[in-house]
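hi support,

uploading two proteins for the ticket. first:
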Amino acid sequence: MNKNESKYFKSAEKMHTALLTLLDSKDFELISVKEICETAGVNRSTFYLHYDNVNDLLQETVEAVYKDFFGRFGAVGPGALDVDEKNEDELFLVTPKYLMPYLDFVEENRKLFYLMYEKNEMMGAEKTYETWFKTIFGPILTRFGVPKKEQPLIMVFYLKGIIGVVTEWVRGGCTESKDEIISVIQKCIIKP
């Protein structure tokens, strides 16, 4: 990466951080380019070099946050699972091992998470989750002998259900403990 590319990415990171900081104190619709630039310490021309509008910044910020999240989650992802292992409890799709990092992430980024689902069409959040579910849960469903043809339908069921529970948790201010939310999710799902 040359010096100009490095500056470009550093400016983008500053604006991502500025947007997340501003989201802690105000609604997304009230955040202006001017505020983002002041908070990030960049010029308006720098903002418009990167983005057409605040929605573009939001979309890229969500992608950056998820990239960071999935990077942290990878340590307990499919590579950590021995899908040939006979221990069915380890292969249950919604163990705390998988859900706790996700719920930690959601709680840390609750405003961004909520905004992402309020603007679902723009953000493409479900596509991100579909990729995640295929990567993490595909090998487990295969291990349980679920036919490949049925796997996308089962994954959509998990995807919609877990997102629904977590979205309601965020709407309520994350007042229940993460252990309580994991328990609720596990009660809703039967092992394959």
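and the second one:
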Amino acid sequence: MTDRPVPEADIRPLMSSFPSGVSVVTTLDADGTPRGMTCSSLASVTLSPPTLVICLRTASPTTEAVLAGGQLALNLLHEGAHATSDLFASGNPDRFTLSEWRLPLGAGGPHLTEAAHAIADCAVVSTREVGDHTTVFAQVRRFTADESAQPLLYGRRRYARWSDATAAAREGAGRVGT
């Protein structure tokens, strides 16, 4: 009898079936250079203290800067910002020259002012490396939100608009079980 290793399951099709919001994690490296990456792997952990978990690719320069600096900004993208999501998911070294951003006093990282509908400045409180990613537990120190903007969604390897999804839900309201 021969033991055979079980190949790892490719869970990308599973996770693409779970739509989520889209964010860009930003920070500054030790030289003050802005770093950032698109991220859809995040969740709220606890309300008190207000803590998020964000999963970042370990080999990324952004992750390295987040870990070294101990802080980040989480930019939640609005439904018109899919180009920003694509830009920060790419390897383009000019992503910050191609995006409007600012760095307010006390910010955890650059704020993507034209692309984000909500921004949280966070302090890293714990990390753990799991496979090729690092889970970052980040305590929210402050946040801003534009309640009039709608979130960008991502699922099944494509973007969707929150306003379109909620419009369809409103149209179907009251039809359950008919």
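thanks. also noticed: The chain has a mean pLDDT of 91.
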